[in-house]
Predict the structure.
Amino acid sequence: MHDRQEIALTVNGEAVNRTIGVRQHLVDFLRGELGLLGSHLGCEHGVCGACSVRVNGRVVRGCLMLAVQADGADVLTIEGLSETGEIADLQEAFVAGNALQCGFCTPGMLLTSAELLAGGQPLTRAEIREYLSGNYCRCTGYQAIIDAVETVLAQRVGG
Amino acid sequence: MKAPPFQYVKPQSLAEVFELLGEHGDDAQILAGGQSLMPTLHLRLSSPTVLIDINGLDELAGISIDDGQVTIGALTRLAEVLKSDIVNAHLATLSRAMPHVAHVAIRNRGTFGGSIAYADPAAELPACMLALDATLIVQSGQAKREIAASEFFLGLYETARTPGELLIGARIPIDPPNRVNSFLELSRRHGDFAVVGLAATANAVGDRLEDVRLAFFGCEDRAKLAGRAALAVSGKRADAPTIDAAIDALTEDLDPVANLLGNSATKRHLAAVLTRRALGELARGVGEATHA
């Protein structure tokens, strides 16, 4: 039992070893220790979704997971996800459709939408809305965001 | 804000969990999905000395069916409950409730047992456990204790689980063939905690409702069965006068607590609205069962 602990994990495909304070949450670790500034901290209590990251293949709230809990995990941030090209079409649709204004919520929107798109199921606009309901956009650009996801979903699975 | 200092330990066995709980008692906090605990730490509403992370205990996760009962392990992620074939086939009320439980990123990490043990008065799962007459299983050392859901939720974030005990899962009777149900929730944003919600089950016997259970959440300091309202419709056809009688009886069942989402009168009104809708839905379910 410790207040500091060594962790070994994979972040965006690269092995990372650090000794960290156990009370540090995952996004503080990613931003502060690794300089990955794409994961944003909005509310820091799980409401806004700006801190979304992918852990072991699933999108989670980065602020609601301790960095020490990511020991042994495979973590993908918006930086890593962008590099894989998995969401290149979605990013293009966001730009084309002006689906971001200040950009603060965008990484979280993309990470969450990526999981929706990976489901490979055709969804109604209302279902897309429900899926993204855990991500706030304080510029209130929701229509354009839903438009972009809907467009890409239609391209990928037909709709 | 940042979490206050604490020690962190991730046991590899249940025995180790109970040893730690024995050693640290009230100062220790179980960390499962962390989707409620972590916010309380960040907001410094909670300051445990030790966090016992049970995420390594795979034996606590999983959904199985045996002898007319579905068992759901405490560490089963909410996302797994949502897409479970067993739940979707045999526990219609829970199946309908799951899409209302938080948001995708939270369901991916949050656990079934965590939501029940935390006992938020506006959460869906405690009410589902009441409506489905579930049995909750807690363990301390080698000793297991089975507690009916109706005796588990004691107050605001308070349950019958003692500090030395761990909630390990729930056993839920599968829906009988004549089960009718409704699940309704009013919330500000899809996936948020309820302003008022209602999980309702009954069995259709002829054209009548039997074994009616109306479990409200978001009203009082805990999820609560409305016994008098249920009695008002039990053994009857859910026609308009009966539904009116149930709503009258509801005023004796519920004394809603005001919060940021609504004052007591608002919640009382909304509970009546949901009751009318839910009983209407149960009545239509009876019609379908009769003509099936």
